[in-house]
Each structure stands twice: as C-alpha cells, then as structure tokens.
C-alpha cells in the first residue's frame, strides 16, 4: 500500500514537471513558501536537459544579488527554444523583469520562461495571463494530496501519525519538517504543546525566515490579531469605510499567501500551524494590546450572532461580565433555538460561576443547561433560588423566566394544571414579534398540549412553530419540531408518518447537529418506540442502547422517558426473562428518584405491574413481588401515565378476581382514548379487554377481538398483540385467520405475520421458541455463517451457536437446513 501511495506522489510531481517542460510560452508557478516550487522547477529542468537542443539559463537569489537585471536581460536576448528559469524573485528587479516579459511576448521568436512566485502581484502579468501567453500553476496543484500525506506519515512512529497529519495538512514543507522531527523524537514529545513542537521541528524558524518576509509589517500585525479566532468573516457586502482597514489587509494577505489562508464562502481559515505560530506572537504582545484586540474581536463576533466565539474571546480577555451584555443583545434564551444546545451550554461555561451568580439571565440559561443534562433537581433549585426582589422588571425577562418555568414543567415532568396552559397562552399571545420567539413559545405550547393528548391544539402549535422557525432560519428548532411531530404521530398510531418525521429529523441531525448527543438520545428513544411497535426488535435494541441507557444523564421530557423505557423493559423481558426486566426498571427508578423525576419513576412502577400481568395472562405464571403497589396518577397526568395506570389497574383487578371492575375500567379508558384519538392506548385497552373476555368464556370476546384486530391492521402495530398471546388468544386468532376476508382488510396476512414471532406454534400449547430464537432462525433462513448472523443480531458467534443448540433441541432436528424447514412447517418463521 505504501509503495503504491509513493508511486502516486511521484506520478503527480512528474506530471506537473512534464507540463512545464512541454510549455511553449510562460509558466508561472505561484504558491506561498513551502509548496515545493523550486523542487518542481528542478525536476522540469532535468526533463528539459534531455533535449540537447534547448539552451537553459537559470536565475535564483544569488544571481539576482550579483545583477538584479540579469534575468530581464537574458529574456530580452534569448532566442526561440531557449529556456529561462527564474527561481525566486528575491533580489531581482521586478519592474525590469515585467517589462522584459511584456516586451518579448507574445512573439514567434520568444523563449520559454518558467518563473516561481509567492503571489501574482510580484510581477505585472495581467495582460499575458488574459491572452493565454502565461499559464499559472498555483498552490492547489502543488499541495500534497491526502494519499501522499498518509504515505509519509506511515513511515513515522504510530503515536505521531495523527498529530503530524492534523498539523501538517497539505503543506509540503510542514509535512517534511514534522516527519523528520517525529522520526527522531522521544515518545513523550507527542504530548507536547503545539508551540513546543513547532520549535523542535524547526517550523517556527521556517515561518520566520520564509513566510514572514512575504508580508508587510501591517499585514503581519493584522494576522497576529486575527489569529485569536479560528475563522475570519470577510463580510463581502460591506464596502468602503464600512469595511474595516484591518479586514482589507486580511483580504489582501489571503491572496498573497493563498494556501496558508484558505477561503470557504465568506470565511477565511488559517492553516493550523501558521495560526499557532501567529497565536504565539499574539501572546508576546503587551497585555493591554491583547485585551483590546480580544474585546474588539468578541464584539464583532457577537454582532454577527456567533455567541460561542464571542464568549470564548471575552473569557480570554478576562471580560466575562461582557458575556451577559452580548447574551441580552442576542435575545438571551433565544440562543437555544437559533444556535442549539451546545451554544447555550458553552456560553454559560465561558461566563463562569462568578458571572452566572451575578446575572439572573445567565442563571436562567444555566437552568436550561442543567435540564438538558438530566440534572432536574439542580435546575429546579437554581430556578427557585432566584430572588424575585432582585430580578429585572422588564417584559423580556418576564418572558424568559416564564419560558424556563414551563420548560421545567416539560423536562422536569412537573404536573400541568389548566392555569399553566392559560398563563402560557397569554404569554404567547402578547409575546415578542420576532419569529424566533414565536417559534419557541409555540413549540413549548405544542409539548404541553401533546402531553395532555390535546393533539389538535398540539398540531396547530406545531404548524405555527414550524412556520416561524423557517422564517427565522431556526434550524435547530426545525430538527426538534420533526421529533415532536413523530411523538404525536406515535400516540395517534400513525406509524408510517411517524417514520417519515423521524427520517427528516435524522437527516437534519446528521447534516448540522451530529455532535448533539441530547438530540440523538431523543431521536433514538422515539425510534425505539416505533421499531418495537412494528416488531423490528433487532433495530429496536440498537435504538434502546442509544436512548434508555442514557436517560438519567441526558436531555428528555416525559414523552421521551416513556418512549425509551417501555421498549427497553420489554426487550429485556423477551431476551432474558421478567426478573431481569423488573430489576432494570427498579434500577432506573432509583436513578430517576435521585434525579428529581418521581413521576417517571412512578410510571415505571406501574409498567412493571403491566409486565407481570402480561406474563400471567400469557404463561399462567404469577409472581407476587412485582405486582405492587400501584402508583396513583394525578388527573393532570400525561396520557402515558394514564395508559400505564389503567392497564396496571386492570391486571390487578383481574388477578384479584374482580374481572367486572377490570372490564369497566378498560371500557371507561377506551371512551377517553377514542375521544382523544389516542389510537395507541385504544389498541392496548381493546387487546386486554378481548383477552380477559376470552379467558372468562364471555361471548362478547370475539367482537372485541375483531375490533382490536381491525385497529391493529390499520395501524400496522404488531408487537402489542403478542404481549398477551395466551393459548386461548392464539386459538381465537387462528380461527379469525381462517375466515375469508376478501383480500381487502389484510387481516389474514396481518395475523400470519403475528404468528411467526409468537411463542405459540399451532397444534400445541407448549412454549417452543423464544423471540431471540425466532430471530436467529429468520437470519438463518436468509443464509450466512454464525459470524454474519451474529453481526446482524448484534451478538457473539458463541451466542449464535448457543441459540442454535436450543433450537435444534426444541424442534427435534440436527442441522440448520432441517431447523429452517421445520420452523417454516410450524409457521414459526
């Protein structure tokens, strides 16, 4: 591999040299110092000398010192076919050289000229470039491609490779010096700070001797002050006086040393090594000059809306108090929606504890940071500690404080009352005129309504929030609005549209906010819920790992906790049994209680009862310990709390012999869920109602089962029908599957898909295959080794073989082919 990479590098250099050697007029090799201009000219010269008819004259800095006009005179006196090489203009009479070039070209008897320049302004070549007489090979052609950088770093000790690659980038001189240093350096030198590495490798001397002479003192000074920021905004729309003198100098400099300063859109980026060297020069400036420069740059970034960089610069200048001013000017909490959570978190961190303690608005921002980190108790304490007598009595601050209060309700899962909604509605109605604020306020209203299952109002808020977010270009809020939409659609049972909304959210996350772990956690929780409903357990396991196990330390609101924890518990129960599932729920309850989330913990207690009830119905196994106590739900609780409570109550009543009470409770819950279009809850209530009626031999059972199946077919929700798949339930399903449905309802196909992963096989009441064993069989039927199957199912090869042995024993077969054949006969796959 390395040999091929080196060969590729040689091919590139040779191709460029051949291009020079074949040129007929003027070739200008233009790049900053360190891009191998001289090496390229020497290689081309070697190729040209093979043609003995060519007369070659070479001029460099030594030649120019002896006679500044020697190169110009040679051009004027050279004949056709001669080659004049001007390697460096240092010491040359540039005016005389420009006049000679413009005097001889274009002409049929003109010589061939190769010139190495740092930048095109060193010579007057505009006319010759326009008419095509002079061709330019610039830094883009001379920079090292990634493959060559890798080939060079492959020859140095492994611990230095990433360091050298990140620092050198595509600058040939830097790569050469750093690789040479790495070959001789001791292992601990890999941990040195960049400034020390520049000194040890000789890069600082190279920059001082080769790069700095290209710049004027003003340009160098401007770059030193600009180096405090990673990028430089050029603001092309500003002209004349509006465009600062320093910015004009930077723009000129970016042309002179293009390659060490790269432009992308309206931003200039300094090469990391050059920036480090400039930063070292900045550190050597007087303290007053540093503070002035940092403050000026911070104000410029704040004016452009880049609060993160502004906060860093203010912190570096020791002016943390200015961060609050910048925050207020940019709309304080609005930064959350316009810049994302990472921005608001860093602004608070850069402000520091002392500034936050003095600033009410920064304390409100810290509340948001604590909530998003899952530290609900601390967030509530920080909010409660605000002394109302010292708070600013302004409409803006009142709005910010109300937003944090409502966000605490959402993230802290506090109980909502009607006056909460009314108070917030009035805030929205008289809220700020800015689209950003309207989007934020409508988003919070959407969450509050969705948690109460007021979906029409929630969707109206969602539409309004999305319109304003697009108007304000609040891309971070657009990401979360797709997640809120998916959450509503999951509750309504529209799994197809929920998947589309989650797909849009994932696309936005990957493109712009891939480092936002909180957004990924929320997205994965909703995806886990969707995948579980659809019976896609392998995918759901992966989503659970990215959500439920992060919950205590990541952002979430009640809907997200519910979406993540239920599939987590059910998957553990399917894979390892009810005991481990209960233990996992108990562990999460302890963490949630310490975190300040007692309502979520209470919901998980009721979920544990539901799991026990399902096993009792399904397998006839009764366990006393996990059955209680049931946790009551406040009338203002979320729809998820109500659903879990109603199911747990029905199971407890049925176990205690109070089946009439269980039926009554389920029918009352059905009235509410149907009225609210809570299709997800309605499906669960109907399935349990049908199950209890079947077990009691009630003649109404078939009607309820048909209704449950009709709803399940419409929603596409399969897994929920397996929760109570008792022998009697499976038999009733098989009877319905045998009925003709005209091919229109899809009932027969839906039931057939349900029977495959169930633990029941037609003709027997024995439990044959676990869910995991069915998945192994499904993967086995598609072909593949143990290793391939393990990769698909996220398990070890040993685990695959363990399940296969169990499958062989249960199906009474001795090989893979027979196992697949027998499983298909029994409709297990």
TrEMBL record:
> SMART domains, alphabetically?
HTH_LUXR
Sorted UniProt keywords: DNA-binding
Q: SUPFAM superfamilies per the record?
A: C-terminal effector domain of the bipartite response regulators
Question: Which residues are in the HTH luxR-type domain?
Answer: 762-827
Q: Which InterPro entries match?
A: Sig_transdc_resp-reg_C-effctor, TPR-like_helical_dom_sf, Tscrpt_reg_LuxR_C, WalR-like, WH-like_DNA-bd_sf
Q: Which residues form a coiled coil?
A: none
> What superkingdom does the record give?
Bacteria
Q: Which Pfam families match?
A: GerE
PANTHER family reported in the protein's UniProt record: TWO-COMPONENT RESPONSE REGULATOR
What name is this protein filed under? LuxR C-terminal-related transcriptional regulator
Q: What is the lineage of its organism?
A: Bacteria, Pseudomonadati, Pseudomonadota, Alphaproteobacteria, Sphingomonadales
């Amino acid at each position: 591999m390395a040999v091929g990479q080196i060969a590729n590098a040689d091919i590139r250099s040779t191709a460029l040299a051949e291009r020079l050697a074949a040129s007929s007029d003027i070739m200008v090799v233009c790049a900053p110092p360190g891009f191998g201009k001289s090496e390229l000219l020497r290689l081309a010269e070697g190729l040209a000398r093979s043609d003995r008819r060519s007369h070659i004259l070479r001029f460099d800095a030594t030649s120019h010192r002896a006679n500044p006009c020697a190169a110009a005179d040679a051009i004027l006196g050279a004949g056709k076919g001669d080659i004049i090489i001007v390697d460096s203009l240092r010491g040359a009479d540039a005016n005389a050289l420009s006049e000679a070039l413009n005097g001889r070209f274009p002409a049929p008897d003109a010589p061939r000229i190769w010139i190495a320049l740092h930048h095109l302004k060193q010579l007057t070549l505009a006319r010759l470039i326009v008419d095509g007489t002079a061709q330019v090979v610039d830094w883009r052609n001379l920079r090292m491609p990634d493959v060559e950088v890798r080939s060079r770093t492959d020859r140095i000790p492994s611990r230095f490779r990433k360091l050298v690659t990140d620092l050198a980038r595509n600058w040939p001189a830097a790569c050469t010096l750093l690789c040479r240093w790495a070959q001789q350096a001791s292992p601990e030198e890999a941990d040195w700070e960049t400034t020390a590495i520049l000194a040890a490798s000789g890069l600082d001397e190279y920059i001082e001797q080769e790069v700095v002479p290209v710049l004027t003192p003003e340009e160098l000074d401007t770059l030193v002050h600009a180096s405090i920021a990673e990028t430089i905004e050029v603001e092309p729309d500003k002209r004349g006086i509006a465009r600062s003198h320093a910015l004009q100098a930077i723009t000129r400099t970016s042309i002179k040393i293009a390659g060490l300063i790269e432009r992308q859109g309206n931003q200039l980026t300094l090469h990391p090594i050059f920036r480090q060297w400039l930063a070292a020069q900045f550190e050597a400036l007087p303290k007053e000059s540093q503070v002035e420069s940092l403050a000026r740059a911070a104000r410029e970034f704040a004016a452009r809306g880049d609060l993160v960089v502004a906060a860093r610069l203010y912190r570096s200048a020791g002016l943390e108090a200015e961060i609050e001013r910048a925050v207020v000017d940019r709309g304080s909490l609005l930064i959350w929606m316009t810049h994302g959570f990472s921005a608001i978190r860093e602004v608070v961190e850069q402000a520091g504890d002392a500034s936050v303690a003095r600033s009410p608005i920064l304390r409100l921002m810290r509340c948001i940071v604590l909530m998003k980190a899952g530290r609900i108790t601390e967030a509530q304490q920080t909010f409660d500690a605000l002394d109302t007598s010292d708070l600013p009595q302004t409409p803006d601050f009142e709005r910010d404080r109300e937003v944090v209060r409502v966000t605490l309700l959402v993230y802290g899962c506090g109980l909502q009352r009607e006056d909460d909604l009314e108070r917030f509605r009035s805030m929205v109605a008289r809220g700020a005129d800015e689209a950003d604020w309207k989007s934020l306020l409508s988003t919070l209203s959407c969450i509050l309504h969705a948690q109460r299952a007021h979906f029409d109002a929630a969707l109206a808020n969602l539409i309004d929030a999305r319109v304003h977010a697009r108007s304000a270009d609040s891309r971070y809020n657009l990401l979360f609005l797709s997640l809120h939409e998916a959450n509503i659609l999951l509750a309504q049972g529209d799994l197809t549209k929920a998947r589309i909304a989650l797909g849009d959210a994932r696309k936005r996350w990957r493109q712009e906010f891939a480092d936002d772990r909180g957004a990924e956690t929320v997205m994965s929780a909703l995806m886990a819920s969707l995948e579980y409903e659809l019976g896609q357990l392998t995918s759901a396991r992966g989503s659970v790992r990215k959500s439920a196990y992060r919950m205590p330390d990541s952002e979430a609101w009640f809907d997200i906790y519910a979406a993540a924890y239920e599939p987590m518990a059910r998957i553990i129960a399917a894979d390892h049994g009810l005991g481990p599932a209960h233990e996992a729920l108990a562990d999460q309850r302890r963490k949630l209680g310490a975190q300040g989330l007692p309502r979520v913990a209470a919901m998980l207690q009721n979920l544990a009862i539901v799991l026990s009830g399902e096993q009792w119905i399904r397998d006839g196994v009764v366990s006393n310990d996990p059955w209680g106590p049931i946790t009551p739900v406040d009338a203002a609780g979320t729809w998820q709390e109500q659903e879990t409570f109603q199911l747990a109550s029905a199971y407890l009543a049925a176990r205690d012999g109070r089946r009439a009470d269980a039926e009554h409770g389920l029918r009352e819950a059905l009235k509410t869920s149907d009225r609210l279009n809570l299709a997800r809850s309605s499906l669960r209530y109907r399935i349990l109602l049908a199950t209890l009626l079947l077990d009691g031999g009630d003649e109404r059972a078939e009607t309820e089962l048909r209704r449950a199946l009709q709803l399940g077919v419409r929603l596409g929700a399969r897994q929920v029908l397996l929760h109570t798949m008792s022998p009697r339930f499976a038999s009733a399903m098989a009877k319905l599957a045998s009925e003709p449905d005209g091919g229109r309802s899809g009932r027969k196909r839906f039931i057939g898909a349900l029977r495959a992963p169930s633990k029941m096989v037609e003709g027997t009441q024995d439990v044959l295959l676990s869910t995991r064993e069915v998945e192994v069989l499904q993967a086995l039927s598609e072909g593949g080794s143990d290793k391939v199957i393990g990769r698909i199912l996220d398990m070890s090869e040993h685990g695959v073989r363990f399940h296969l042995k169990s499958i062989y024993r249960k199906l009474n077969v001795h090989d893979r082919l027979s196992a697949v054949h027998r499983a298909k006969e029994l409709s297990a796959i």
